[in-house]
C-alpha cells in the first residue's frame, strides 16, 4: 500500500494591470500559445524556487547607499 502524497499549500497573489497592459499580455500569450498564468510563473521562476530558505548576500541592498540621507541636520555649503 502506498502512502498518500502530502497536499501542497498555495497562496494567492493579485496585482492590477491597465487595459492596454492586459491586452498586450493576452496578445503575447496567444502568439506563444500559452496562458498568462504560465507566462508569469515562468518569468518569476528563479525568484520563487531558489530563495525559499534565505536570500544570498549579493541580492541584499547595501546600507551605505542610505547613509547620505541620514545626515539631514547638517547643511552643506559650497563657499565655506
- Based on secondary structure, the structural category is mainly alpha
Computed Rg: 23 Å
- What is the helix fraction of residues, given as a range? 25-40%
Q: What's the total number of strands?
A: 0
The amount of beta strand, in percent, is under 5%
Q: Main sheet? A: none
Structure annotation, total helices = 4
Distance between the termini: 84 Å
Molecular structure report:
With 80 residues, the chain is an all-alpha fold. The chain has 4 helices and no strands. It has helices at 19-32, 36-43, 45-49, 67-70. It is flat. The N and C termini lie far apart (84 Å).
Brief account:
This protein is mainly alpha-helical.
Topology:
Elements: H1 19-32, H2 36-43, H3 45-49, H4 67-70
Please tag this protein with its features.
80 residues; 4 helices; mainly alpha; 0% strand
Amino acid at each position: 500500500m502506498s502512502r498518500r502524497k502530502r497536499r501542497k499549500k498555495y497562496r494567492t497573489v493579485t496585482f492590477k494591470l491597465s487595459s492596454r497592459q492586459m491586452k498586450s499580455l493576452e496578445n503575447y500569450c496567444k502568439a506563444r500559445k500559452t496562458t498568462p498564468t504560465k507566462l508569469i510563473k515562468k518569468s518569476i521562476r528563479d525568484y520563487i524556487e531558489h530563495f525559499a530558505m534565505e536570500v544570498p548576500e549579493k541580492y541584499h541592498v547595501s546600507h551605505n547607499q542610505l547613509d547620505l540621507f541620514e545626515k539631514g541636520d547638517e547643511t552643506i555649503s559650497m563657499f565655506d
